[in-house]
Amino acid sequence: MSHQKKRHLSLKQQRNINKHRQKLIEKKSLKNQKASQELELLLDQEDNLEIKKGIVISRYGKSADVMPLEDDKFTSSHQRCFMKASLDDLVVGDIVFFYDINAEQSFIVEREERKNLITRFYFNKQRNIVANLTTMLITSSINPTLNTEIIDRYLIVAENSGVKPIILINKVDLVSSDEEKAEIENIINYYNSLGYTTFAVSATNNLNIDLIKNQLQDGLHILVGQTGVGKSSLINAIFGEDLMSVGEINYDTKLGKHTTTTSRLFKLNDHSALIDSPGIREFSLDNYSEPQLLKGYKELHDPTYACRFSDCNHVNNLGCGILRLRDDRKISDFRFKNLLSLLQQINQS
């Protein structure tokens, strides 16, 4: 069988393609900016426009989809809105005020003060993800592998943001041995002992889906986790319909395919909504300080185990409070291992 040699682009061809792509991006940006400026001019000419309140359910460049709120209740409609240049940092979950210029054009003029804001560090830049959360559903699964370090990363984010975390261990229907079952039960019991509501769930068998729904009766909630843990399947199970496409696992990388490309909000009831965010394979804590990281570990909230050394490596220093926590068996082995790994990562960043 003959194989054709794969053709590679020259550096000049690559530069030309990138230059053309950048021109298209700039052209689209200018078009959106011009439309936004035209709407601002229209707005200045109208004195009798009714201001409305809504919540951002998705973002697209210089525009956003907004769900109108009626008496602070979620509705079933949404509309595309342009926004003032000063509001270009809007994210899903932001409460905004907007005008309908006409039947087809709306304009956001103000954002309500946020209760909280979830961010992540990406390519040395802090990026806003979502605002005004009540609950963070931290999702992991036993397939392809249960990653407690990712769970602990999200717990650190939740603790520092004032958001209630709930931990979901998905795909437990795939447990293949008593040993694996016991290990998962030990992890779930440990997180529960810390005060974190933790469920073993299965989107396939609808196991404990009703327990999740009971936790989501009021407020704004987000489902987070690595790709491949079954977030889309869980959303479909929670809503009882196929809202999201479901990806497959790549067993070479042990990661799933991204089936969500932008954060989006879905109404659960008049008082509750659920946000699905794009899969994050590596939620970086590069912008977190050591005190912020330690705040995410409830075991360390006891001042008895506060480390008194400002330059401690928490590995072999005599008198280290964190090591004493381990020696007194006040922290599980897997949580202690994750803690040292995360401390090393932020101290190297």
From TrEMBL:
Molecular function in Gene Ontology: GTP binding; GTPase activity; metal ion binding; rRNA binding
Residue sites binding GTP per the record: N170, K171, V172, D173, G225, Q226, T227, G228, V229, G230, K231, S232, S233
GO cellular component: cytoplasm
E.C. designation(s): 3.6.1.-
Keyword GTP-binding in record: yes
Positions contributing to Zn(2+) binding: C307, C312, H314, C320
Subcellular location: Cytoplasm
Pfam families (UniProt xref): RsgA_GTPase
Cofactor entry: Zn(2+)
GO biological process: ribosomal small subunit biogenesis
Domain CP-type G intervals: 123-283
Functional note: One of several proteins that assist in the late maturation steps of the functional core of the 30S ribosomal subunit. Helps release RbfA from mature subunits. May play a role in the assembly of ribosomal proteins into the subunit. Circularly permuted GTPase that catalyzes slow GTP hydrolysis, GTPase activity is stimulated by the 30S ribosomal subunit.
Assembly behavior: Monomer. Associates with 30S ribosomal subunit, binds 16S rRNA.
Family to which the UniProt record says this protein belongs: Belongs to the TRAFAC class YlqF/YawG GTPase family. RsgA subfamily.
NCBIfam families, sorted: ribosome small subunit-dependent GTPase A (TIGR00157)
Protein's UniProt name: Small ribosomal subunit biogenesis GTPase RsgA
Organism: Psittacicella gerlachiana
